[in-house]
Amino acid sequence: MNSIKNKIVAVILLIPIWIIIYTNLQEISDFIVFKLFKMTDETHLTKSIRFFCYEVPKVLLLLTLIIFIVGIIRTYFSPEKTRKALEGKSLFTGNVMASLLGIVTPFCSCSAIPLFLGFVEAGIPLGVTFSFLIAAPMINEVAVVLLIGLFGWKVAVIYVITGLTIAILAGFILEKLNLNKYVADWVFKTQAKQGLEKEESMTINQRISAGGVVVKEIVGKIWIYILLGIAVGAGAHGFVPDEYLAGALGSQNWYSVPLAILTGIPLYSNAAGIIPIVSVLIEKGVSLGTALAFMMSVIALSLPEIIILKKVLKWQLIGIFVLVVATGIAIVGLIFNYIVFT
Amino acid sequence: MKIKILGTGCARCKALFRLTTKALGELKIDARVEKVEDIRKIMEYAVMRTPALVINEKVVISGQIPKIADLKKLLTNNL
Fold first, then answer.
1. Cβ B45–A110 below 8 Å, yes or no?
2. Which of A160, A225, B52, B73 can pair with B6 through a Cys bridge, CB separation 3.0 to 4.6 Å?
3. pLDDT of residue A54 exceeding 80
4. B10 interfaces chain A, CB cutoff of 8 Å
5. What total of structural domains would you count in chain A?
6. Rounded CA gap, A53 and A39, in Å?
7. Would you call A115 an interface residue with chain B, using a CB distance cutoff of 8 Å?
8. Which residues of B touch A186 (CB under 8 A)?
9. Residues of A with CB below 8 A from B40's CB?
10. A80-89, A151-160, A265-274, B26-35: which has the minimum mean pLDDT?
11. A275: distance to nearest CA of chain B, Å?
């Protein structure tokens, strides 16, 4: 009983501390730069270091909080429950639900195949399964935090809504194309035995611990990418002239969006490394649509994941999958470049 | 007792394998730990998250790496 109270009390105490640090971050970082490092004028170097000293703690603070909250929410979900919820749903409803559940269901790309097979064997349509597999990696808490931190709320909301739309529509279209014949033949033959016994329900205490574990695991893994990403960003922030990239990658060039998507596919980075760099690209004149397309392509279409999926899907299906998703991303990019910002 | 670790060779699967051998060593249980990396064999256990731990053909863990104390409990309870 005692430890249950302790954990809740600890969380309640930490939240105001978090808020105080977060709201005073500019003062704290300016103090470090100007008083501790004794940097005075606004040279390029000072600009870069100020950017770095402000953005790194800001992003790390946001990440810790949101990953913790999402970690707790995720203890209420599991692939097994999601599968159950999706069984017997009609096509479009299934796509919408699968995409939404993709956001909250714990998912790691290393489990993509068992999850794919588990869904398909339960009779969930291929297109619905794809909606899940597109939404789950694309709309993740790390991407959302970084977008909030570096671009603000609006861009983050736009990203989530357009990402969901792509996942829903791409899954719907893939189902309509009737592609079951391109799934490896043995998949539909496998008869699964009884799986994991009924899950035990968790106490609040265990859920809070689980949130803490996820924070340690994710932040422990990605902090270095964030540091590097922001360092590159900080360097460019101070030294590359504004509007430098506007010519080639601004909104006026139709080919900037497809180019960004093609560049993004072989790049395999988690959101942590790529988003800080993208934020500086935008500052230097790359249009928002192009930047969004690049980010989505890097995160949702990755070569390693395609290679993993090759074990269960024939190449025709992988090709169509990549094409449909890439087209969706391209449409989003072009809409933002032409309609929203002209 | 028959122990299997299901996983397609990802880092977390290897971590669970190491942790299990370590726990068995500390418990002084002499059991064979088998790695199952073939996805078709893995699917026979109907797990949707790897790594998974199977003791005597029963799936006891899926998709997580437990603390060593919890793992020991699982191992002794399923002896």
1. no
2. B52
3. yes
4. yes
5. 1
6. 13
7. yes
8. 40
9. 186, 190
10. A265-274
11. 25
Residues A230-257, mean pLDDT to the nearest whole number:
72
Which residue type sits at A12?
A: I
Domain count, chain B: 1
Residue A35 has what DSSP assignment? I
Interface confidence, given as ipTM, is 0.78
**Domain limits for position B23:** 2-77
The CA distance from A122 to the nearest CA of chain B, in Å, is 10
Does residue A297 fall inside a structural domain? Answer: yes
Pairwise CB contact (< 8 Å): B48 & A83: yes
What CATH number is attached to the domain comprising B20? 3.40.30.10
> Helical H runs in chain A?
2-23, 25-30, 44-74, 79-86, 91-104, 112-121, 126-138, 141-151, 153-176, 204-239, 246-249, 256-264, 271-283, 288-300, 303-309, 315-334
* A333: Cβ contacts below 8 Å, ≥ 6 apart: A257, A260, A261, A289, A290, A292, A293
Task: Mark yes or no for CB contact A192/B58 under 8 Å.
Answer: no
Within-domain flag for A12: no
Q: Given the structure tokens 């109907």, which residue do they identify?
A: B46
Is residue A52 one of the residues assigned to a domain?
Answer: no
What are the chain B neighbours of A121 within 8 Å (beta carbons)? Answer: 43
Whether A105 is in a domain gets the answer: yes
